[in-house]
Every structure is written in C-alpha cells, then in structure tokens.
Specification:
It is built from five helices and four strands. Strands 1-2-3-4 form a four-stranded antiparallel sheet. Helix 2 packs across helix 4 and helix 3 packs antiparallel against helix 4. With 178 residues, it is an alpha+beta fold. The longest helix has 29 residues.
Length: 178
C-alpha cells in the first residue's frame, strides 16, 4: 500500500468520525462494563483463594476463582509467556482500534454500535488484566453437574453478548427488506 493510499484511507476514516456516537458508546456502554469487570475481578481476587469455589445454584452455577494466561478456552495457555503476552496484547490492542473505528463510523447509536461497544468493553477489560497481571481473572463457572462450560468473566460475557447481537442484527436485517 502506498503512502498516498494510506493517507487517503486515514482521511476517509477521519471524515466519517462521529464523536457523539463514540462518546455515547464509551460512556453508556463500554466504560461501565469495564468498571464492573475490573471491580468484580478485584473483589474475587481479594476475597477468594485461587481455585476456591462458591456454589450459587447447585449443579448449575458457581463462582470459581481461576486465572487464564491464554485466550478463550485457554488457547495458547501453554505457549511461552513472553511470546503469548506480546501476541495477546497486540491482538487485544488491534481489536480495540478496529472496534473504535467501526463505532466512530456510525451515523447514530444503533444496536450494532451497542454490540461493538460491548465487544470493545470485553476486549478492554481483558487487555487491562493481561497488561497488569499477564493473565485474565475468570470466575463464573456455568455447568451441568460435571459438564462444564469454560470459566469466564464479565468481559467475556460482554464479548459474547456483543457478537450475538451482531449475528442477530445481521440475520434480521437480511430478513427485513427495509
């Protein structure tokens, strides 16, 4: 890519930048979720021993304090720490930039911009953990007796809800010709 086409791309992004949408999505969605995510992680790490378990709904839902050095489903958890951390910090940062650009390009707040802001909050919350601790604190354990879903946190939930909203929006926008 030439420097001129890079400059043209940057100018196109800046010309579509909508500070109102960015401000609303950051203040109303991303910042509160990042705050809740970090507060919940700090509370769990301060009040529970690692791997301790508190049963909330028998055979369904527990609080189980774990730390995940990898990504979703503990992928890359066994990779060398320095390479893993550098890669994950880079990927999280890149995702945040892309999500900010997509939010900024919106004309107005929509379900899609809310979904993008949820994803931004999830990436941001986990990025804070990786930068501060080198791993992510997870504590929500959903299971059916001994059948377990991977343990997750508020940031992971925000990411999952955001992706689900994007998928639903995509499905329903195709079904509605207007």
């Amino acid at each position: 890519m030439s420097s001129q086409s890079t400059a043209d791309s940057a100018a196109a992004v800046m010309s579509s930048f909508n500070p109102r949408v960015v401000s609303v999505m950051l203040a109303a969605v991303a910042a509160p979720i990042i705050a809740l995510d970090q507060a919940s992680k700090l509370y769990i790490s301060a009040h529970m021993q690692l791997y301790a378990n508190i049963q909330l709904i028998p055979n369904w839902l527990d609080i189980t304090y774990t730390r995940n050095p990898g990504v979703a489903f503990s992928m890359f958890a066994n990779a060398p720490a320095s390479a893993r951390n550098a890669l994950l910090l880079l990927l999280d940062s890149a995702a945040i930039v892309v999500l900010m650009v997509l939010i900024a390009a919106a004309d107005r707040p929509t379900l899609v911009t809310v979904a993008l802001a949820l994803m931004l909050a999830g990436a941001g919350g986990n990025l804070i953990d990786r930068a501060a601790r080198g791993e992510v604190i997870d504590f929500v354990r959903a299971h059916y007796y001994s059948y377990n879903w991977p343990i997750f946190n508020v940031a992971d939930s925000a990411l999952s809800i955001g992706v689900t909203l994007i998928l639903l929006s995509s499905i329903f926008s195709r079904a509605d010709p207007h």
